[in-house]
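Lab notebook, design round three. We kept the backbone fixed and only want residue identities now. Task for the bench partner: fill in a sequence for the structure below.
Input structure tokens:
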């Protein structure tokens, strides 16, 4: 397991992530959006923490990732970075903050790095945003790519269904993965694509490939922490393995607290000054 093999490492870096791929060690990645959760995830031994724009959904209750702002992403990222001692922290550049032109992309990336203290940024897309990626990398900011289902483009796709099932889209995805590697990205996330295609991409590019709904033949896996812990119960796609049922645990705890307060059982004498 990664946590045991890498327990002596003070800080995960892009170099270490590349070494993990080279020796066949799977990379573990989860989201986190606040100090408390990030501290737990980091102490457990996770390799990468993604401060995802999925905060728009799980933290703010929006239907899509589009509404979250740069200021909000920096707030979440700063909270996470304060808690992290070992994991590599990647931050999503929010929708509308890098697609327009490369100068805007560079400004957005630099803001995130300077104001949050994060270690890298993540962007969605391939050839369409190559110029922005190149510009960000020119400033020394590590970039993680994201292909397949790209939630920031949900209104273009019109659905959250599996991407790249047809040959034309699959070929473009492979080409885009090569473009991201050649541009200098240190890793790529593949979301909700056929497992066979994801395996092909992971074998084609030399950089780490992290999957979410992309099968087990990639270099690592990522999930939204609220989903895998069972805090959110409404979202249950095929690729999600729920490792706990914290929604039930937390609900019962709150109900027990309410009962004790109503019954004048809390606080008791030992809990009073």
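Proposed sequence:
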């Amino acid at each position: 397991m990664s946590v045991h093999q890498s327990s002596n490492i003070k800080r995960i870096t892009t170099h270490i992530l590349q070494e993990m791929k080279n020796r066949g060690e799977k990379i573990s990645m989860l989201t986190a959006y606040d100090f408390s959760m990030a501290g737990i995830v980091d102490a457990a031994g996770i390799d990468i923490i993604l401060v995802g724009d999925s905060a728009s959904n799980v933290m703010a209750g929006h239907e899509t990732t589009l509404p979250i702002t740069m200021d909000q992403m920096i707030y979440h990222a700063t909270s996470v970075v304060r808690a992290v001692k070992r994991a590599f922290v990647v931050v999503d550049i929010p929708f509308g903050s890098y697609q327009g032109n490369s100068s805007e992309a560079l400004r957005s990336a630099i803001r995130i790095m300077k104001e949050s203290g994060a270690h890298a940024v993540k962007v969605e897309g391939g050839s369409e945003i190559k110029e922005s990626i190149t510009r960000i990398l020119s400033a020394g900011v590590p970039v993680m790519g994201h292909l397949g289902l790209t939630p920031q483009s949900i209104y273009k796709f019109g659905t959250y269904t599996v991407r790249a099932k047809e040959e034309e889209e699959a070929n473009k995805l492979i080409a885009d993965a090569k473009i991201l590697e050649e541009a200098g990205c240190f890793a790529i996330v593949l979301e909700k694509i056929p497992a066979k295609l994801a395996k092909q991409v992971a074998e084609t590019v030399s950089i780490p490939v992290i999957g979410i709904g992309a099968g087990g033949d990639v270099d690592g896996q990522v999930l939204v922490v609220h989903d895998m812990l069972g805090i959110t119960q409404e979202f249950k796609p095929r690729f999600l393995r729920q490792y706990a049922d914290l929604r039930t645990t937390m609900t019962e705890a709150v109900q027990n607290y309410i009962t004790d307060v109503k019954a004048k059982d809390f606080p008791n004498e030992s809990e009073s000054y």
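Keep this in mind before ordering anything: The longest strand covers residues 143-148.
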